[in-house]
Amino acid sequence: MPNFNQIIQARERIASRVIPTPVRQAFCISRLLGANIHFKLENLQRTGSFKIRGALNKISRIAGTIPNLGVVAASAGNHAQGVALAAREFGFPATVVMPLGTPISKQEATAGYGAKVILHGTSVTEALDRARELAQEGRVFIHPFDDEEIIAGQGTIGLEILRQFPDVAAVFVPVGGGGLIAGIATVIKESAPQVKVIGVESEAAAKGAASIKSGRNISALVAQSLADGIMVRQLGDLTFPIIMKYVDDIVAVSDDEVAHAMLMLLENLHMVAEGAGAAPLAAILRGHAAAFENRPIVLLVSGGNVDVNLLGRIIQRGLVSSGRILRLSLNLRDIPGAMAKVLNIIAASDANVLQIQHDRMVTDLSLYETRVELDIETRGPGHDKLIQRRLKEAGYGFKKIR
Prior knowledge:
The protein is α/β, with parallel strands linked by helices. The chain has helices at 4-14, 27-33, 51-62, 78-89, 104-112, 124-135, 148-164, 179-191, 208-214, 239-246, 255-268, 275-285, 308-321, 338-348, 381-393; strands at residues 23-25, 36-41, 71-74, 94-98, 116-119, 140-141, 170-174, 196-202, 249-253, 296-301, 325-333, 352-359, 369-377, 398-400. The chain has three domains: 4-49 and 147-319, Rossmann fold (3-Layer(aba) Sandwich); 51-141, Rossmann fold (3-Layer(aba) Sandwich), CATH 3.40.50; 323-400, 2-Layer Sandwich (Alpha-Beta Plaits). It contains 15 helices and 14 strands. Helix 1 (4-14) packs across helix 3, helix 1 (4-14) crosses helix 7 and helix 11 crosses helix 12 (275-285). It is globular and about 80 Å long. It starts with a helix and ends with a strand. 49% of the residues are buried.
């Protein structure tokens, strides 16, 4: 298990190669949510993620023993890029196994840092199995989280947080395999034990909270999620006991909450965060800052590597989940003027219709009806409810679409 001194040594080892990322106060978001929120911006780190810290520490520690074939890793994104860049900086070849279906942008970024990219399997687990096979050929396998040097490298973030913000009351950290929170929690609890360390995981891979509660390292079923960077089915053998010792709690968030958090960061801080990086803010949206009253809390934005092809859909989902877009389905008489009456009610409510779809072929409609789906831009949940109330008062039945 890595200790505090190992993390201090890791900081000295990687200091010249990483960016000491800023902590930024979020005035607008704090006011909206009634909390004292600050963000640690690892999305501004090299490769766009905290992962470069652990990779640099690991490779620098073993540089004298790395064979000619170099290192091998498996990842769907951030770990891949961290290992690729770290290996290049120390002059070693890197091979990275990525699952089939990994976004092309992430494949290209990894290759751009000098790694040989191999596509294999349909999951990170299958890619890891292939990476271990390649290690048997004479490469050093770099685990994404269950490794002392990796954990120590990630723990350097904790040192920066305490130096930058000595009055912090709590730190919220994304949890996948646990390497990030294990390193940060070790630093914080050994330096400032009064500070709470809260992990945040996705409901689509919820194993951390159950593991803490049961005292056993539980494996979870993993579904697809916007927070793909923390979609790991089980905490590591090394990370689990550290989490049990130092982490105060782990909470889960939904994809809708993650999308809403990503949108808030984009609009209020002009900041692109990936799903895992927005998960701590999603936890605050669920109300987990209430226990800290107005004491300062730091939310770790762990990365900002979002696939551009998904970004538009994520924004759309965030608008819907936050009540900024109201989607309704209603049946109307198929006669002139029927649609105009509905639109007049919406216009009188100071809302804007973004899109209208008609469908006359639905089998549960009479021949004299049409189904209409509306996407309506609103100012938020209160405005959303006003429009629905006015439609009901006018005698319209409708269904809200998620």
